[in-house]
C-alpha cells in the first residue's frame, strides 16, 4: 500500500524541475515513446481486426453456416435430411448442392469449382449469388439448359462474356482404346457475379443442380445440403445437435470447422503483430527506466535527508514507483487517446493521402477491398492499456530498489 507521504513526495518529484536538462529530456522522450507505441499498437490491431471482419463477412457470404453430407459419395435422400434439419428451430433455410472440381475451356483454360444449385432455393440460404450478379440472373439457370454463371475474374481469365460458350470437363470419363477421355459438356454463359472474394471470383462456376447431376451421372444424389442458421455463431452447437439427432447416416459440419486453418492463421498473425508492437512500448518503458535511474542519481541528497528524517527504505522505494507510474499513466492515457482518434479517422486520413499523392493505398483490383477497414474493439484497447501500464510499472522497480539502497552517510559526505 502506498502511504500518503510517499505519494505526496512522488507527485512532487514528478512536477519538479530537474537540475539537469538532459534528465527532463529523457523523461519527455520516454513519455513520447509510450504515446507512439500505444498509438501504433491500438491502430494496427484495429486495422487487423477490421481486415479479419471484412474477410470473414465476404467469405461467409458464399459458404453455408452448416452442411449436411452423406457418409458415402453422394447424399441420395436429401429431402429427408432437409426435413430433419427444419425440425430444429435454429435452422432457417436449407438448399441442396452438387460440387466438383472441373476444367473450363473458353478462349483459354482454367481450373474451377463446379457448383450445382437450385436457383429457387438459394434465397433460403441467402448466399451472395442472389445479390452480387452484375450481369444476367441466377433465375436464367434452367434444368436441361446447360447454362453457367461465372465469377468475374474467372470469366476474364477465360475471355468469355454473356452468351459465349465454355466447355466443362470433369475427371469422370470413359476409358477408350486411345486412353482415358474426360467427360465434357458445353455450357452457355448466362450470368457473371462478383463476390468480392478472390477464391470465389476466380474459381467458381455455378450451374443448375440438375445439369451438374447429369454431367456427373449422380442420378438424384447431391453432394450435400447447405443450412442457414438464425445465429451463425451457434453453428458448432447446432451442427453437433443435428449430427446426434440424425444418427450415423449423415455427417454434419459447420463453417468454423471448414475454415479453421484460415482463421487460425489470421488469429496467429494478429497475436504475433501484437507481440512485435509491444516491443515498441517495451523500448519506451526502458527509456523510462533510464530516466528514473538518472533521477535517483540526481536526488541522492534528498533521499539521504528523507532517510535521516526517519523514512524507511520501503517508503523511498514507493516514492519513485509513484513517479514512474504517473509518467507511465500519462503516456498510456495519451497513447490510448491518440490511438482511438487515429483509428476513428484513419479512412479519411488515407483518402487525404491518396488525393495528395495520387497513389491508391488499397487498390480494389488487388485487395478486393475499397478503403481501409478498421474495427475498434474496446477489449483490445483495455488489454493494450493493461500491458502498457504493466511494462511501465516493471520499469520502475529497479530504479526504486536502487533508491532504497542508498546509504545516507555516503550520499551526504560531499554535500
Kindly describe this structure.
With 415 residues, the protein is of the alpha+beta class. It folds into two domains: 206 residues, no CATH class; 194 residues, no CATH class. 56% of the residues lie in helices and 20% in strands. It is built from 16 helices and ten strands. It has a six-stranded mixed β-barrel with strand order 2-3-8-5-7-6, surrounded by four helices. The longest helix is centred in the N-terminal third of the chain and has 40 residues. The mean pLDDT is 82.
Walk across the major sheet and give the strand order. 2-3-8-5-7-6
- The helix/strand order is HHEHEEHEEHEEHEHEHEHHHHHHHH
Q: Tally the structural domains.
A: 2
- How many helical stretches? 16
| Number of separate strands | 10
Uncertain residue ranges: none
Which keywords apply here?
2 domains; 6-stranded mixed beta barrel; 415 residues; 56% helix; alpha+beta; 16 helices; elongated
Amino acid at each position: 500500500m502506498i502511504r500518503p507521504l510517499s505519494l505526496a513526495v512522488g507527485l512532487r518529484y514528478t512536477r519538479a524541475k530537474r537540475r539537469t536538462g538532459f534528465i527532463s529530456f529523457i523523461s519527455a522522450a520516454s513519455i513520447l515513446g509510450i504515446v507512439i507505441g500505444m498509438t501504433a499498437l491500438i491502430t494496427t490491431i484495429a486495422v487487423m481486426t477490421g481486415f479479419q471482419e471484412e474477410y470473414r463477412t465476404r467469405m461467409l457470404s458464399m459458404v453455408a453456416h452448416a452442411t449436411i453430407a452423406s457418409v458415402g459419395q453422394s447424399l441420395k435422400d436429401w429431402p429427408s435430411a432437409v426435413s430433419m434439419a427444419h425440425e430444429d428451430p435454429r435452422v432457417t433455410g436449407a438448399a441442396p448442392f452438387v460440387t466438383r472440381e472441373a476444367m473450363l475451356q473458353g478462349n483459354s483454360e482454367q481450373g474451377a469449382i463446379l457448383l450445382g444449385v437450385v436457383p429457387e432455393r438459394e434465397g433460403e440460404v441467402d448466399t451472395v449469388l442472389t445479390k452480387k450478379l452484375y450481369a444476367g440472373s441466377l433465375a436464367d439457370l434452367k434444368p436441361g439448359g446447360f447454362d453457367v454463371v461465372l465469377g468475374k475474374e474467372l470469366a476474364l481469365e477465360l475471355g468469355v462474356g454473356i452468351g459465349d460458350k465454355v466447355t466443362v470437363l470433369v475427371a469422370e470419363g470413359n476409358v477408350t482404346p486411345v486412353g482415358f477421355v474426360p467427360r465434357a459438356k458445353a455450357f452457355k454463359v448466362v450470368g457473371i457475379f462478383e463476390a468480392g472474394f478472390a477464391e470465389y471470383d476466380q474459381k467458381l462456376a455455378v450451374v443448375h443442380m440438375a445439369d451438374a447431376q447429369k454431367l456427373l451421372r449422380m442420378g438424384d444424389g447431391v453432394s450435400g445440403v447447405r443450412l442457414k442458421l438464425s445465429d451463425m455463431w451457434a453453428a458448432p452447437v447446432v451442427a453437433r445437435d443435428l449430427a446426434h439427432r440424425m444418427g450415423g447416416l449423415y455427417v454434419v459440419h459447420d463453417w468454423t470447422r471448414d475454415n479453421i486453418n484460415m482463421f487460425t492463421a489470421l488469429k496467429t498473425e494478429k497475436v504475433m503483430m501484437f507481440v512485435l508492437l509491444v516491443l515498441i512500448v517495451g523500448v519506451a518503458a526502458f527509456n523510462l527506466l533510464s530516466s528514473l535511474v538518472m533521477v535517483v542519481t540526481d536526488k541522492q541528497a534528498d533521499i539521504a535527508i528523507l532517510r535521516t528524517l526517519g523514512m524507511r527504505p520501503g517508503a523511498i522505494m514507493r516514492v519513485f514507483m509513484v513517479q514512474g507510474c504517473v509518467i507511465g499513466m500519462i503516456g498510456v492515457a495519451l497513447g490510448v487517446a491518440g490511438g482511438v482518434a487515429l483509428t476513428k479517422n484513419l479512412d479519411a486520413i488515407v483518402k487525404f493521402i491518396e488525393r495528395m499523392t495520387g497513389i491508391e493505398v488499397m487498390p480494389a483490383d488487388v485487395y478486393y477491398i475499397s478503403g481501409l477497414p478498421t474495427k475498434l474493439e474496446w477489449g483490445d484497447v483495455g488489454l493494450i492499456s493493461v500491458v502498457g501500464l504493466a511494462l511501465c510499472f516493471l520499469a520502475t522497480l529497479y530504479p526504486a530498489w536502487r533508491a532504497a539502497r542508498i546509504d545516507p552517510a555516503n550520499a551526504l559526505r560531499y554535500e
